[in-house]
Amino acid sequence: MISQRAQNLQPSATLKVTGRAKELKRQGKSIVSLSAGEPDFKTPKHICDAAIKAIQDGFHGYTMNPGTPELREAICAKLKRDNNLDFDPSQIICSNGAKQSVGFSILALVDPGDEVIIPAPYWVSYPEMVRLAEGKSVTVRTSFENNFKLTAEQLEKAITPKTKALILCSPSNPTGAQYSAEELEGLAEVLRKHPEVYVISDEIYEYIVFEEEHVGILNVAPDLKDRVVLINGFSKGFAMTGWRLGYLAASNEIVSAVSKIQSQETSAPSSISQKAGEAAYKGSLDEVKAMREQFKKRRDYLVQTLNSIEGVSCFTPGGAFYVFPDISHYLGSKKPDGSAIESSTDLCLYLLDEFGLALVPGDAFGEPNGVRLSYAASMDDLEEAMNRFKKGLGSLS
After folding, report:
1. Tens of pLDDT, residues 140-158
2. Nearest to 171 by CA among 145, 204, 123, 218
3. Cβ proximity of 169 and 230 under 8 Å
């Protein structure tokens, strides 16, 4: 009999849509997919060269459970250089991706029945990770009008005696929303009143910001450092998704707890990936900046095009590589066969099956009025996607 824990978990909606799109493509159908959260660029050469050298040098064995001293030192130097944050290598633990760092942080902090506040739209894995820890997700639905960002008032209202943590993601997956220093200060003021509440600050999209510099909650509220878990990694900014390398920075108490969990579950990440990560933080960021410029051009094209479509509204996200337009105008509309589009999931399945366009429904992120489009794709694919999107919506009545 499969455990109740496993039965309770839902599969990742983004991976599900991506998998279905790939299967249709294998069947010979023309598919344009804007569903995956994966840069379409190659990992910069100097990072790959460092990994090749590590292999050639025979750096093949297990490393220390929290990661190599050299990588943790490079992370501390990066946090000081880019974020003006002071951490000791003992306060860093490297993992098999930022996703693992989030999950293990939740396991380290949350007891059965504890509540975790998650602003919606949220990354699909957050609620399931809380469920796995036997906690309770308290989702707070944010508004399109506020660019899907949690307000201080909403946070205050959501906190109860059972609240253990708040998960923040800025820039956001799935919306690309970026919190300003002023907005984070407002949240910090609320958190100061509740010293029992931790913050898991997911900043994996830190390098993909456009108009404003990245600001994290520790930049505006260093006094909260002992109860903030800073999550980051290499997958998005350096196009290193398959390298599976992330990390967290936190108090020694939290790091010690996560380290115990990691030592029993996975141990350290790949030795080769760690050498690559070290090179990423010690080397030039020129290619990171070049990728960011391309992402910005794609973002601008999508926002302009989406807002030109009748019944669609899209705000301009500050970072990441997603747009999250409001498609509520089309909910309740009819397909050519007379059946109804009852949800964003219905709409996305219709667009995939009939027009070969793969998007992720907002239902998966806790926001039924939206869909997520990833612009980690070529301009040719984006233009074709918009053509199919317009045709698909135009076929509804």
Report:
1. 999 999 999 999 999 999 9
2. 204
3. no
